[in-house]
Amino acid sequence: MLAARSFAAPARQCLRQANRSRWAPALSQVSARTYASEVAKFHGTKGSDGKYSVTLIEGDGIGPEIAQSVKDIYSAANVPIKWESVDVTPRLNEDGKTVIPDESIASVKKNLVALKGPLATPIGKGHVSLNLTLRRTFNLFANVRPCRSIAGYKTPYDNVDTVLIRENTEGEYSGIEHIVVDGVVQSIKLITREASERVLRYAFQHARDIGRKKVRAVHKATIMKMSDGLFLSTAREISKEFPDIEFDAELLDNTCLKMVTDPVPYNDKVLVMPNLYGDILSDMCAGLIGGLGLTPSGNIGDNCSIFEAVHGSAPDIAGKQLANPTALLLSSIMMLRHMGLTQEASNIEQAIFKVLAEGKTITGDLGGKAKTFEYADAVIKALNIAEQLRFAFDDPVATPIFPMPPKPPIRFPTKPPATPKQYVRPSLPIRLANPGPRAPLRSLSTSASPSSPVRRRLPPPPPLQWHETSRARTGRRYIKWGINGVATICAMLFIRDNWFEIQHVRGSSMAPTLSPDAHETGREDYVIVIPYHARIDYSTVLEASKKEFWSVKRGDVVTFWKPHKPGEMGIKRIVAIEGDTVYPARGYALDPQVYETRLKGLPDGLVDHDEDSIAARDGPEVGKVVVPYGHVWLEGDNWRKSLDSNDFGPVSKGLIQGKAVMVWRDWWRLREVGDERNKGEKRMRSRVVEGRPDAPELFLE
């Protein structure tokens, strides 16, 4: 009774003050709200320039540096956003309350969305947390904190993918506390049905939006039977509105114990909880994936939403370009998805994950040495590469889908160039004589070009039985195996839409290598892409072959040819540079330690190169040297040297792009049509076998 008499009056006084105060939106603002079927949806519109306006609160300390990284990356990605920078330096009003400038409030209310860097609360009597001030000013009722493991940054936990939603306006953080007597302080935990309904309804709605089928309420209703009991009973009522979403509840301490033991069982759930529990549990989950520097956050309100980096302002490193902008970047990606710009969000997100997975250009807190602007430049570089390509894999969420550039027109030259330069023809008619059941050709040209001396209709290519079998077994979608480029010891080029894909392996040759099960799996461990119509100088191939290629990993796109004189070489555009990683068709990268046991898989009939020898590993011509379905120019004296030599080393080195050549062990077969220049130099070996199922006839204009 003494305790009740001592605390009842102060408690009532606190609640009366809360009703009059702007600091209790759960009582003064939420109670008047009429709930809709969907809450916290973005309703902004584009301006006359076709862009959304977004308020940017750069923040304190390292805030301007990481905010600049976001602006640079968004500019490079052509995101339809116009930044409106504001200052939220607080002041105390006449009532002694912390407030932010009116123009900043007006900007956020006008744009409906804001991106915020870290803020430091001013030191001085009367100031409260700026983050808390923003949440209360704009009634940001839900804090969404996704925590997902990032490839390339090792932690004791793998495959973490949790989503936490925290009630943001009341609970222990309602700010209702007072001194009863000296040495006794009372703080009130405020839970209302209205605020609980709002955040719970948003949690179920968010689970549906991101494709999760379970929502779990985290509570301590066993101890706080009335406050947490109200939150839990409200959750059970709201769950009836979402019959497609499973609902259960769990005690806070059990959740913490299970999550630090094994967080994977929480990957299919959305966790929703009152304010204090969410504050603690969300930071704990951030620790599972590497800290707050890798964790995005979004504060959702009825009308406005603010997305933020939740780490500190780090004044000790401010201005030194040492800060990690990842958290703010990932928060901005949450903002883009909230605004409906999902394609732009996916593009930037994949570029960030690509840079982090490489680990070559990361900041000091992640174990690297890169500056803030260098990290941003690496993301921009990855973004520019990705924009040139479109990858089609089975997992549309984890794999970026980028638009392909427009297909260039195909023009057939009427005659070879006056000076025999290296040239890759866009298309040449190719015909198989009695093709075998697993001939690795598909979607080839069925007629000669209009300007070609060969004016005959060729039969359509046979179906690829091995390809269909592979597709049925693996369910993968592979590239079209129409071969439309060079086939030498250095590279094998395949056409996909309007890009060439080069298969390469380790070693000085960069030649494609066969796997015994190639016809069953169609596996490609590395894909290197160069532009359509590219002219490749052989010297650059040799130069590139001396370099180490094992820096390539999943996710990168590489070409090893750099234009020394782009005008002379005729290179239209280089879409990637050395050292970037590759998306393997089967979704994994070849590890150098298992190179001997898991060689690249290509269809049989392609070349296998080892040191100075070339051989076909599969098919009826095992052991014979084959350069199939390719077009190579033989330049200058290399023409004679190649034909006169029976040594594989000089023969291999003499192969340059341009002329159509097949090599069989110690003899060559050269077929020319309508080429008057080299009639006197043509040498035909006698050991020519006609009609082989794997020996195509090649026609050269």
UniProtKB/TrEMBL annotation:
Reaction catalysis annotation: D-threo-isocitrate + NAD(+) = 2-oxoglutarate + CO2 + NADH
Active-site residues, as the UniProt record annotates them: S509, K572
Keyword Iron assigned: no
A cellular-component GO term for this protein: mitochondrial inner membrane
Compartment list: Membrane; Mitochondrion inner membrane
Region (Disordered): 434-469, 680-701
Cofactor section: Mg(2+); Mn(2+)
Primary residence: membrane
GO molecular function: isocitrate dehydrogenase (NAD+) activity; magnesium ion binding; NAD binding; serine-type endopeptidase activity
Start-end of Basic and acidic residues biased regions: 680-695
GO-annotated biological processes: isocitrate metabolic process; signal peptide processing; tricarboxylic acid cycle
EC number from the UniProt entry: 3.4.21.-
Residue ranges occupied by any Isopropylmalate dehydrogenase-like domain in the UniProt entry: 53-379
Top EC category: hydrolase
Keywords carried by this UniProt record: Hydrolase, Magnesium, Membrane, Metal-binding, Mitochondrion, Mitochondrion inner membrane, NAD, Oxidoreductase, Protease, Transit peptide
Residue stretches of biased makeup (Low complexity): 440-453
PANTHER family: DECARBOXYLATING DEHYDROGENASES-ISOCITRATE, ISOPROPYLMALATE, TARTRATE, ISOCITRATE DEHYDROGENASE [NAD] SUBUNIT ALPHA, MITOCHONDRIAL
Subunit description: Octamer of two non-identical subunits IDH1 and IDH2. Component of the signal peptidase complex (SPC) composed of a catalytic subunit SEC11 and three accessory subunits SPC1, SPC2 and SPC3. The complex induces a local thinning of the ER membrane which is used to measure the length of the signal peptide (SP) h-region of protein substrates. This ensures the selectivity of the complex towards h-regions shorter than 18-20 amino acids. SPC associates with the translocon complex.
Family classification: Belongs to the peptidase S26 family.
Protein name (record): Mitochondrial inner membrane protease subunit
Record organism: Alternaria burnsii
